[in-house]
């Protein structure tokens, strides 16, 4: 999926869904790409450890904070608030599905035992 403003949510949390909040809008012309990973883990399996294995990078909060601070997208923080005409589409629409598959975005599914 694509995004420009790193402060705009890219996915709806379980809490947001329970509270009835709208799903985040997808920025089809975003300057950056994000990878959404869906994990199906068994008992006593940890998503953090699975992500560390997939990305081959350190998952400590200190390391991740430094990566965030040094990333290019930080120059675009809060730009969505200042640009109401940002091209966005509703997740789940057929246009959203085309945008996701058409750009070669990837959903990785890790299933225990496979």
Notes on the structure:
The protein has 5 helices and 6 strands; from the N terminus they run βαβββαααβαβ. With about 110 residues, the chain is an alpha+beta fold. The protein has one domain. The longest helix is centred in the middle third of the chain and has 10 residues, at about 60-70. The chain is globular, with a radius of gyration of 16 Å. The chain starts with a strand and ends with a strand. It comes from Rhizoctonia solani. InterPro entries: TruD_catalytic. This is Pseudouridine synthase.
General form: globular
* Beta strand %: 15-25%
What is the radius of gyration? Answer: 16 Å
Order of helices and strands: EHEEEHHHEHE
Helical run tally? 5
Q: Helix coverage percent of residues?
A: 25-40%
Oligomer status: single chain
Summarize this entry quickly:
By secondary structure, the protein is α+β, with helices and mostly antiparallel strands. The chain has one domain (2-111).
